[in-house]
User: Fold this.
Amino acid sequence: MMTGGKQIKSERKENTNRFSDLIDCLLLHILSFLDFRDAIRTSVLSKRWRHLWQGLTSIILHSSNFGKGEKFGSLKNCMSRLQSLSDGLPTSLHTLDFKHTGGSVTPELLGEFISYAISRNAQQLLIYAETNIESLKPSIYSPIFSCETLTFLKLSLYHENDSDKRIVFPNSPNMPSLTSLHLANVAFCARGDYVVDPFSTLKSLKNLIISHCTLRYKPYIICISSATLSSLTIRSRDEKDNYAVELSTSNLLSSFAFEGVPSMHLLGNGLSHVKQVYIDAYTLRNSSQDPPQVLLQWLRKLTNVQSLTVTANTLQVLSLIPDLLKIELPPISMGSLKSLNVKMKQNSPPVPSGTLNFLLQNSPSAEVSMHP
Assistant:
């Protein structure tokens, strides 16, 4: 009969053997969920694990996982490890997820990570980092925008204590495989007619997220023209993002989301095709714009929306319109609405009286729900 201690040791040994019996591709799949430093550390487990991490094709490198005071040295060490991989390893990199917080990464080191991803034909690239934008030459980050293998790109580079310093997104990027693009804190540069159309060359683009971006030169007009775009999200934190957006999309645009201050005008007929809409709006004190009226203009353009989700804050913004309940929406506005969902966030304000009836005036039979 086994004693309690021997039984526990036996069970541990059995579990260890089961783990070791897994084939390499499954072990690599498990390692792909670890931060890159932790994946490297598995090399001390046994001879089998010594070089296993070198076969990783998905790499997560978040400096927030580093100890205090060791970030820069650890980043350089990780970059050296990546660069020292032997020629016999897989040439294709599926994902590089690089995030550096709590300090500024040098443009040179940032450029090394970008070059590594591009040289290994990365499919997914996620970069979130604080760096010296003034010293970040376009030649360091511009190879991203001509990478033919990228299918997913999430890019956010910001300058310490100065949100006005941003990298410039090119007017004609060459990324034929790109299907999902998330840009944060970038600037678009308009041409002589003061209109910029930065996404027209992205022939496979389906999902686009623009967060806290700006447009240089006036008047502010960003044209989003795409025959493939199906989902668009815009996030705007203040009135500096008060450019106009001209939606020249086909009827494939089925989902639209907005978060922030509704200070930008949405031009074109893009919203008329959208079937799913999410709006989380708020206003700023002493606003020089008129977010409630801008929000009302958007709602009037929603002629085919079937599912509308708004936050309680959005309804508060809407209630600021004088004599709101006396305003009649055009008969086609939200006439196809099937569900109206109110999202109640933590510490959400109460739903203003009459705002739901205003939204439902052309679709009184739509289902209404409130949820966190």
